[in-house]
């Protein structure tokens, strides 16, 4: 029996996210664990959505559309897997949403790319992977 029941991979449509998904799929398959694709539509707060005039339904529609694009890219990259992964789409601050989803679980492994956004965005906003690593007790593998 595997030490991990799930391997969760954070995907954002970037090449780093695709590489992380390839690694996560191999890890899940080798451990007999379930693979979960996790996408977070980056929205810092409800205030921003309100300022943009977006309804909850519109936010969910954009979340689903961006998640589908990221999921489809991953599914193409790991098409040889024996079973399809679970797909989870969230909205919020990316690192906070990942941390909330993990809830410090010890029986899952999170796999994520080191950098999904632009280098400038990373310098200004801080790295999602760095924040997740600093604030979770869940095991994390960062793919560069």
Strand segment count: 5
Task: Estimate the helix proportion, in percent.
Answer: 40-55%
Q: So what's the overall shape? A: globular
Number of helices: 6
> How many independent structural domains?
1
Please give the order of strands in the largest beta sheet.
Answer: 3-2-1-4-5
Mean pLDDT: 87
CATH superfamily: HUPs
The gyration radius over C-alpha positions equals 15 Å
Estimate what percentage of residues fall within beta strands. 15-25%
How does CATH name the architecture?
A: 3-Layer(aba) Sandwich
SSE order: EHEHHEHEHHE
Low-confidence stretches: 120-125
How far apart the termini lie comes to: 28 Å
Organism: Wenzhouxiangella limi
Family: Belongs to the universal stress protein A family.
InterPro entries: Rossmann-like_a/b/a_fold, Universal_stress_UspA, UspA
Domain UspA: 4-143
Task: Quickly list its features.
alpha/beta; 144 residues; Universal_stress_UspA; five-stranded parallel beta sheet; Universal stress protein; UspA; 5 strands; Rossmann fold; Rossmann-like_a/b/a_fold
Structure summary:
This protein is an alpha/beta fold and 144 residues long. The protein has helices at residues 15-31, 46-51, 56-77, 94-102, 119-125, 128-135; strands at 6-10, 34-42, 86-92, 108-113, 140-143.
Walk me through what this model shows.
- This is Universal stress protein.
- InterPro entries: Rossmann-like_a/b/a_fold (IPR014729), Universal_stress_UspA (IPR006015), UspA (IPR006016).
- Belongs to the universal stress protein A family.
- It holds the Pfam family Usp.
- The chain is of the alpha/beta class and 144 residues long.
- The chain has a single domain, classed as Rossmann fold.
- The chain is built from six helices and five strands, in the order E-H-E-H-H-E-H-E-H-H-E.
- A five-stranded parallel sheet has the order 3-2-1-4-5, with helices on both faces.
- Strand 1, helix 1 and strand 2 form a beta-alpha-beta unit.
- About 4% of the residues have low confidence.
């Amino acid at each position: 029996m595997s030490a991990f029941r799930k391997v969760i991979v954070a995907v954002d449509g970037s090449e780093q996210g695709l590489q992380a998904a390839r690694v996560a799929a191999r890890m899940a398959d080798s451990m007999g664990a379930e693979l979960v694709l996790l996408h977070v539509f980056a929205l810092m707060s409800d205030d921003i959505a309100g300022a943009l005039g977006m309804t909850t339904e519109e936010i969910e529609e954009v979340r689903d559309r961006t998640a589908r694009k990221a999921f489809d890219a991953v599914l193409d990259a790991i098409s040889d897997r024996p079973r399809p992964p679970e797909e989870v789409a969230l909205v919020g601050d990316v690192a906070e949403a990942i941390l909330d989803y993990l809830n410090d679980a010890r029986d899952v492994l999170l796999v994520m790319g080191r950098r999904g956004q632009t280098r400038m965005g990373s310098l200004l906003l801080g790295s999602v992977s760095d924040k997740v690593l600093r604030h979770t007790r869940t095991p994390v593998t960062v793919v560069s």
